Amino acid sequence: MRVVIAEDLAxxxxxxxxxxxxxxxxxxxxxxDGDALVREVMTRQPDLAVVDIRLPPGFHDEGLRAALEARxxxxxxxxxxxxxxxxxxxxxxxxADRGGGVGYLLKDRVMHVADFLEAVRRVADGGTALDxxxxxxxxxxxxxxxxxxxxTPREREVLSLMAEGRSxxxxxxxxxxxxxxxxxxxxxxxxxxDLPQSATxxxxxxxxxxxxQRDE
Amino acid sequence: xxxxxxxxxxxxxxxxxxxxxxGIPLGLLWFVALVTVWSLCVALVITPLSIVLVIGLAFLxxxxxxxxxxxxxxxxxxxxxxxxxxxxAGKFWxxxxxxxxxxxxxxxxxxxxRSFVGFPVGIAIxxxxxxxxxxxxxxxxxxxxxxxxxxxxxxPHTFIQSLVLVPAGLVLLPATLLIVGPIAGAFRPIASGLxxxxxxxxxxxxxxxxxxxxxxxxRALVTHAAVDGVxxxxxxxxxxxxxxxxxxxxxxxxxxxxxLGIHGWFVLLGERPSLVDRFRGNRVLAATAGVGAxxxxxxxxxWAITGHGYFWPIWPAxxxxxxxGALTVAALLSSPRHAEMAERIETLExxxxxxxxxxxxxxxxxxxxxxxxxxxxxxxxxxxxxxxEQKLADDPERVGELIAEARAGAExxxxxxxxxxxxxxxxxxxxxxxxxALASLASSTPMSxxxxxxxxxxxxxxxxxxxxxxxxxxxxxxxxxxxxxxxxIRIAHTGDKLELQVEDDGTGGANPDGTGLxxxxxxxxxxxxxxxxxxxxxxxxTIRAELxxxx
Lengths: 216, 551
Description:
The structure holds 2 protein chains of 2 kinds. By secondary structure, chain A is of the alpha/beta class. Chain A folds into 2 domains: 2-130, Rossmann fold (3-Layer(aba) Sandwich), CATH 3.40.50.2300; 142-213, Winged helix-like DNA-binding domain superfamily/Winged helix DNA-binding domain (Arc Repressor Mutant, subunit A, Orthogonal Bundle). Helices cover 53% and strands 14% of the residues of chain A. Chain A is built from 10 helices and 6 strands. Chain A has helices spanning 10-22, 34-44, 62-73, 88-96, 113-124, 132-141, 153-164, 168-175, 179-192, 201-213, and strands spanning 2-6, 26-31, 48-52, 78-83, 102-106, 128-130. Chain A has a 6-stranded parallel sheet, with helices on both faces. The mean pLDDT of chain A is 87. Chain B has 4 domains: 2-281, no CATH class; 282-334; 340-424; 431-548, 2-Layer Sandwich (Heat Shock Protein 90), CATH 3.30.565.10. Chain B has 19 helices and 5 strands. Mean pLDDT of chain B is 80; it is low at 200-211. The chains are: A alpha/beta, B alpha+beta. Chains A and B meet through α4 and α6 of A and α16 and α17 of B.
């Protein structure tokens, strides 16, 4: 897997590079601003761009804009956006642009190295990785007496992990369940929420997120 | 004829008539009550009792003004309110000073107008109406009265003769009702302007809010003058055809002139609001006018009680008039910005002190949060790592635990720093503007929130930040204290100001002196804006803020 990193703080840029390299991921370029990111993505055509939202010169959302631009120039590039804070608006903007794998994670998640690497691989493969905080915010927007209440606590846990973009195997590992048990929960959730049965994880994530974002 | 038909069919005509007639008992009552209390105040000025009287006077005026405001609101449709009550807390002298603010003097002025203008106008309307009814029913009573009707030039005394009078009454009655509208209409802007709780600018704005354009105001003034002229002409005619003795119409002319003068003054102020600035904050003029009017009333009362002799009160009244005139001229000639500047400086001093306080307390909070939160966690994290380093060689299992602990500590520290940063300035506000930031805020509350933001271009960052935190605080209050379920947020960026309104369906009863609302007020005032909180017990709560954007 070939990765480009865009992060303005040298400490974090070098740390991230080391972390990925130590785990057998090839970092082809590590840059510190949005223009450089677009340039590197165009010349090196990586599988994945890991981008900090806040980049110079304005330190607003240049990283996000640059990532979306890079993906437009080189369609199919997976984008994993990392940030010090979580904003559902950005998650929606990222998800609206489905030209390949997307991820939106807090920088904190890097500390759970195994989970983080799993998310990196998932996004690079065209999947989704949404931060648990984003999912929690989407959940909190739902009415207390809505259809979500019909789910058992375990099913809600499974739904959260589905929304984060995890596969059945990933959910099983995270909740210490068998894959078969997870599949049963998933079936039950999809039928309770009236969602279509999808073969791929990717479509399933979209359906779940669309459901959570929908206005009641 | 259509006008006559419309006027007679319009309920408003009769409400206005009731208002004008209410001037007879109320004008008399205000006159007697206020003159009595003022006289006692003057007589007992050197005794401590006068303080009690003065406070009583303030409350009396407020009560009377509340009655008048209610009448003006319901009968005339004026935007009138009782003067605001004195602040519930504060130093005694400050509260006393607040009691005798501009609102008090304006209320006094209105009560005086009701006494000196409303009373005679009421009497005049009543007399004309009674005359009209008398003429209409002349065939009923004339034959019964010995000597018939005394008209001066002719005395009809039979049923047939008195039939001639009926048409005159049938013309006079609708004619009277026709003039009721314009006369009462002249009271309306005066009531809106004088019965006000807030400052002079708002009073002028209150009159403008009624949708009275300068052209309409001018036409109303001309109508008012014309009606006055017609009525006076009629009265002079009556005087001429009847006794031609004592020229009593002068007593109607005087109040008419006063009313016309006041009306004209308000029209002028409405057209040239800059004039208001010259009088704003001029306490000397306000006090002189107030005390002068009361003193004149007092002298007139004394003159009336002591037997209507030579009208000596004309001399002190003249003196007071000259004094007020001189002060008015001085105010007009003085540097027009002077009084306004003084008031502005006072406001800015207060709001700056508030801003400094706010900044200071914010910095303290941030320092405390850093000290107790992230800093402490980083120390603990360092300790865990240090212990892990020590045990590296001999206890690998313990090392794993310590490192996991250190990682958890780092996560906690990050979370706390993130919350802290969001409290200082939410990143999405800078990135995407007010609407996105408020939408994000709305999505994180358990209430259902309707958000409508109408901003063509982004206001200055300071304004956005203040608006954001006002809404954030309002939402926090609505959830925590008012237990609201639905909140409506409206924001409009019109011209050079940002208007913001947060309305919930909660239990209300917000404490305006609580930390939350005080902080909110300071934030708004620091930008020279205005904040109003309407939160009656039982709800709902409406918070409005107006932030100037000329930064």
